[in-house]
Design brief:
The chain is mainly alpha-helical. Helices cover 71% and strands 1% of the residues. It is built from 13 helices and two strands, in the order ααββααααααααααα. A two-stranded antiparallel ribbon has the order 1-2. Strand 1 and strand 2 form a beta hairpin. The radius of gyration is 26 Å and the shape is globular. The mean pLDDT is 85.
């Protein structure tokens, strides 16, 4: 076997193995255009949804303007509407959910991705956690009413009696409220957080573990100083996607949050969120201005979710060296 000429080597180095030009692979070309068509259809549907929501919300936008965002009134009879209590409830419950779900989800991801347990135990644990995502939200809401709230009531009473001097626990609990709603949301976003983080940690190259061990690091030093930093961008992406789901969750939150139009800093007081208000009032809304105010809230929720996803993409791109260099 003889070596090729310099011209042959130059032609080989410039060869693009993915190119289908001049090969007549019409099926590849057709499939590429089909995928592009589906991608553009997705963008077109999103733009269409935005236009429809904006059109429906326009009477309220025209009537209340930007002041709708910080107004606290919601009086259907007087046709006075403000979004602040519902924006606060949505952000507060989502924040509580993230504070609970991130450490638990990361723990589940570590237990199911590292060799703390034998494989025949790890796989069922991962499967059972992911199975929570398949439970309908109304079922989780019923579980919240009949199991979670009675379970949390003595704990919240103890928090009020012991730490009542802290504004977060300053009111006496009676059942539904921000805290039960946040816990319900944490349970619902836990599969997203755990499953994506698990895949991220599994994808960390084994050479990093071996190199860390060869340098004398313990298992926990390897986890906290090598594996978790290596998967940081993916873990943050998982947390942001979980937040996106928490912002839009409706039925389970509606059943346990208490649906109060008042703003209270206490986590033990009832509150309301944008999805819960839409679920409660949209079917009974008759006046155009009432419908417009509800659609204005839907538009705000849409923008919030969009901003969260954009931040997630930017964070992953900023923290991932490969993507940052591309």
């Amino acid at each position: 076997m003889t070596a090729g000429t310099p011209e042959d080597l130059q032609n080989t180095s410039s060869l693009d193995l993915t190119s289908t030009e001049d090969e007549g692979l019409w099926l590849d070309v057709a499939f590429t255009w089909l995928v592009r068509l589906f991608a553009f259809c997705t963008i077109a549907i999103m733009v269409w949804m935005t236009v429809v929501i904006f059109q429906q919300a326009f009477p309220a936008i025209q009537e209340f303007g930007i002041g709708f965002l910080w107004s606290q009134e919601w009086d259907v009879g007087a046709l006075l509407f403000g979004a602040l209590p519902y924006i606060y409830g949505t952000l507060a419950t989502s924040t509580i959910a993230l504070l609970i779900a991130i450490p638990i989800g990361l723990s589940v991801a570590l237990v199911t991705s590292e060799n703390f347990l034998p494989p025949w135990v790890r796989s069922p644990i991962a499967f059972l956690v992911e199975l929570i995502a398949a439970i309908p939200s109304v079922i989780i809401g019923l579980w919240g009413i009949f199991v979670l709230i009675p379970f949390l009531l003595p704990i919240t009473l103890w928090l009020h009696n012991t730490l009542g001097w802290i504004p977060l626990f300053s009111t006496e609990p009676f059942g539904p409220g921000l805290l039960p709603a946040g816990v319900i949301l944490a349970i619902m976003i836990l599969p997203t957080m755990a499953a994506i983080s698990r895949e991220v940690l599994i994808a960390v190259p084994g050479e990093l573990r071996s190199a860390s061990g060869a340098l004398g690091a313990t298992r926990w030093e390897t986890i906290f100083r090598v594996i978790l930093p290596a998967g940081l961008s993916g873990t943050l992406g998982a947390a942001t996607l979980a937040l996106g789901r928490a912002l839009g969750e409706t039925m389970a939150v509606t059943m346990v949050i208490g649906n109060s139009p008042l703003i209270s800093i206490s986590l033990l007081d009832p509150a309301s969120s944008i999805p819960s208000l839409l679920a409660n009032q949209f079917a009974e809304a008759l006046d155009d201005l009432h419908i417009g105010a509800l659609m204005y809230l839907a538009l705000i929720l849409f923008v919030l979710t969009l901003v969260v996803n954009i931040i997630a993409v930017l964070m992953v791109r900023f923290l991932s060296p490969n993507l940052r260099e591309s």
